[in-house]
Amino acid sequence: MKETTTAFRSPSLVVRGLVAGLVAAAATLGLLIGIGRRGGTAWRPLNSAAHLVLGSTADGLWAFHGDVTPVGGLVVLTLSVVAGIAVARLAGSLRSKHVIAAALGVSLLAYLFHVHVAARSPGGLSDLLSNGELRALYLTCALALATGLRFSFSVSKQAEDGRSGS
Hints:
There is one protein chain. Helices cover 69% and strands 0% of the residues. The chain has 8 helices and no strands. The mean pLDDT is 86.
């Protein structure tokens, strides 16, 4: 009998960034909903995130609105995927130090941009969240980006078996 081996390719840069971004988006959305829930308005932070696209239409909305809240979720998802691709590009290798440094660097840069540039315009998450909550948001994002990128590098047992010829 002829033994077949399965060709294994490591995931591309975009795939690794996409996985890291999706993990970061899930963590960030969970944190934002949790912050909103703590204040009694679970959807308000997502409505504030929609301010980036919808402007003042998204401000001051406390409950779920079908034309605003999903847009806020898409804003968080899109920015998280962009951050994930940036981290994947900067990390370059499987080394944990590189992944953590890239994730912390991208999140720190995003935090500084948010605090010093985005906060100058009225509305959005800058008006809603305190500096401590913003720090928690970007720290959560950094941890999730690093975790997601490490997850995207992992090789399944099936792929290892195929690669070794078992």
